Amino acid sequence: MPISLAAAGFTLLIASISLVQQVDLKGYVALSSVAHIGNGSIGLLNLSEESVGGALVIGLSHGIVSPCLFFIVGGLMYGGFTTRLIYAYRGLLVIAPVMGTLLMLHLFANIAVPLSPNWISELLILAGLSHQTLLLCFLSSLNILASAVYTL
Questions:
Q1: What is the 3 state secondary structure string of the chain?
Q2: Residue 48 in contact with residue 131, Cβ under 8 Å?
Q3: What separation in angstroms does the CA of 120 have from each of 46, 94, 97, 114?
Q4: How many Cβ atoms sit within 10 Å of the Cβ of residue 75?
Q5: Is 90 exposed, middle or buried (0-12, 13-18, 19+ CB in 10 A)?
Q6: pTM confidence score
Q7: CA dihedral 104, 105, 106, 107 (to 10 degrees)
Q8: pLDDT tens across 20-42, in order?
Q9: Which residues contact 93 (CB under 8 A, 6 or more apart)?
Q10: pLDDT digit string, tens, across residues 68-115
């Protein structure tokens, strides 16, 4: 079990570091999925009541938010603009306000703004981790901070 927890923490760390350098929107969605599932794996492997509940909620919210992001990025945005590079979408709200608003709402849900399902799940995971392993609690909280950095 400690080896699995260390692997999930390492995956979380590497995905967050890789996301800071990401310039492709589809790659961003894929790597943020890896980071969220790494966080959920830490919660599930911790086996405390709060963190397992948080892992279940993160699985559910990830199953809703990530496919919507893939549809917006891969279907709508790429179909209309034929590029997935982040810098090409400056001023998206002016050109396509509905698409830009949809993307922004789902990105906010992805970075776990308060009262979103991802926020509830990460809060539960941190509560469960704080009772047992402070190092993984610190890594998980760094992931929350890193998700805000690489999204904004």
A1: CHHHHHHHHHHHHHHHHHHHCCCEHHHHHHHHHHHHHHHHHHHHHHCCHHHHHHHHHHHHHHHHHHHHHHHHHHHHHHHHHCCCEHHHHCCHHHHCHHHHHHHHHHHHHHCCCCCCHHHHHHHHHHHHHHCCCHHHHHHHHHHHHHHHHHHC
A2: yes
A3: 17, 32, 29, 8
A4: 10
A5: exposed
A6: 0.87
A7: 50
A8: 888 898 899 999 999 888 889 99
A9: 100, 101, 104
A10: 999 998 888 888 888 888 888 888 888 889 888 998 999 999 888 888
Alpha carbon distance 129, 82 (integer Å): 43
